[in-house]
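In the design runs reported in the main text, the only information available to the sequence generator was the tokenized backbone. The following block is the verbatim input for one such run; it is reproduced so that readers can re-run the procedure and compare outputs position by position.
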């Protein structure tokens, strides 16, 4: 890329920033019309609620802003590429995205998009695409080399379904071929692909593995997503909740950059909101299986006692495990309810349990909705926790960037 082209890119960033979402809306509509088969690959729920579109817009802008030194984005790109790997995105698909993105810039920006500007963006896009294709090539190779692992989709049988609360069900998934399955790092997810009859499409979604590694099955725990009028119900979670034991789903191999770190001796502070408890359960079970268990404090918030999934198992675990301490916040606690010590009313407030969570060298893992993550992250900073020790995952496209 020439210096002149870099200047053109830098000069057009403000235009893209101003109209970023208009462009990406236009781009997605254009691409999915020409390639309707890609509707089976993209999350059509995120298309409808707009979240994936802003994720792509942010990534393109971040790249353009760092055009002089794209190396600084490698960390962020690995997060995107691990999701791409779990969705089986292939190098040739970058051409489809590139063609439609550049054509969309030309059509949306109009005459101001001169041939030089379009050429500069074409070079920039393919520079970014090449970096990502190479990262993903390595990821596919590494994944294929892992015992029990596989690239693409593999059929799994739902052998057991357990209701964990009024709205969460766990699914025990066994490979139909009876072969081995890959180990994973506690906190990672699998992509699950199901056929959604209302859309007449296959749809993928990510679900964190909610138990420690078991060589025979993967367990996921899914909240039935009920739309708040006028928004529709969640497509895949509702479809999964209608499944019976013996039904099958397709799975890609475990992936994800949010996971417990190897130096298991550091204390763990797990902070979850709602269904964000799933990766924490996996971390807890994995810690239990470690020879040297780390002191663990789990702070969890949800709407009420009846919606607190895995509540009883957690109480049993707490009695058994001397290194585990829990704090639970319920939005609503009725006057007649008594849930014992460490169960507090209202939203999660880390200041209310700060003596328990301020532990030397602890790693802090946050999982929950966007606003929950932002609030807990800020509380940890207020409590002087170092950013390097805070890890978080949002159950949607990577949009927040706090570290
Ligand atoms: C890494 C990761 C791990 C995850 N782990 C878990 C887990 O362990 N357990 C779990 O339950 N979930 C988990 N999720 C979330 C999960 O992937 C799904 O996003 C979730 O199940 C909802 O999917 P759905 O198909 O049911 O909803 P979708 O159909 O995708 O809808 C999502 C939301 O968009 C709204 N919406 C849809 N259409 C519109 C519209 N036209 N206008 C406005 N709003 C609209 C819906 O009302 C709903 O609230 C995880 C996500 C990620 C990224
Ligand atoms: C340079 C090109 C690309 C960039 C910058 C990019 C960027 C992104 C980003 C930022 C995300 C969100 C990551 C997350 O959810 O954590 C994402 C997800 C995704 N990308 Fe890409 N991507 C590119 C190319 C492609 C290609 C070629 C395809 C295949 C056609 C593709 C398909 C997807 C899908 C299916 C998702 C998940 C969507 C969702 O869950 O809503 N991407 N990408």
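Verbatim output:
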């Amino acid at each position: 890329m020439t210096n002149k082209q870099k200047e053109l890119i830098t000069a057009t960033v403000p235009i893209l920033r101003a109209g970023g979402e208009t462009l990406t809306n236009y781009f997605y509509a254009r691409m999915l019309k020409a390639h309707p088969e890609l509707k089976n690959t993209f999350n059509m729920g995120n298309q409808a609620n707009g979240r994936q579109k802003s994720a792509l817009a942010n990534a393109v802008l971040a790249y353009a802003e760092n055009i002089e030194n794209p190396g600084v984005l490698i960390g962020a790109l690995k997060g995107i590429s691990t999701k791409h790997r779990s969705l089986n995105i292939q190098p040739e698909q970058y051409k489809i995205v590139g063609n439609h993105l550049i054509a969309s810039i030309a059509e949306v920006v109009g005459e101001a998009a001169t041939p030089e500007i379009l050429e500069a963006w074409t070079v920039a896009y393919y520079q970014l695409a090449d970096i990502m294709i190479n990262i993903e090539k390595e990821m596919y190779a590494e994944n294929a080399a892992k015992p029990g692992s596989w690239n693409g989709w593999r059929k799994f049988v739902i052998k057991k379904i357990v209701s964990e609360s009024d709205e969460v069900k766990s699914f025990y998934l066994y490979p139909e071929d009876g072969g081995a399955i890959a180990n994973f790092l506690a906190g990672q997810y699998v992509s699950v692909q199901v056929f959604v009859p209302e859309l007449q499409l296959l749809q993928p979604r990510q679900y964190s593995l909610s138990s420690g590694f078991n060589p025979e099955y993967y367990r996921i725990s899914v909240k039935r997503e009920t739309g708040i009028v006028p928004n529709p119900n969640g497509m895949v979670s509702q479809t999964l909740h209608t499944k019976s034991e013996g039904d099958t789903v397709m799975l890609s191999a475990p992936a994800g950059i949010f996971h417990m770190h190897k130096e298991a001796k550091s204390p763990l502070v797990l902070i979850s909101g709602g269904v964000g408890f799933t990766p924490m359960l996996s971390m807890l079970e994995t810690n239990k299986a470690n020879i040297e268990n780390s002191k663990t404090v789990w702070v969890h918030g949800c709407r009420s006692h009846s919606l607190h999934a895995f509540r009883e198992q957690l109480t049993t675990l707490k009695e058994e495990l001397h290194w585990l301490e829990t704090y639970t916040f319920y939005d609503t606690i009725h006057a007649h309810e008594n849930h014992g010590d460490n169960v507090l009313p209202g939203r999660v407030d880390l200041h209310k349990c700060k003596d328990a969570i301020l532990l030397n060298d602890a790693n802090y893992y946050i999982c929950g909705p966007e606003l929950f993550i932002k609030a807990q992250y800020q509380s940890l900073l207020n409590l002087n926790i170092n950013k390097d020790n805070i890890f978080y995952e949002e159950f949607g496209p990577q949009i927040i960037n706090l570290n």
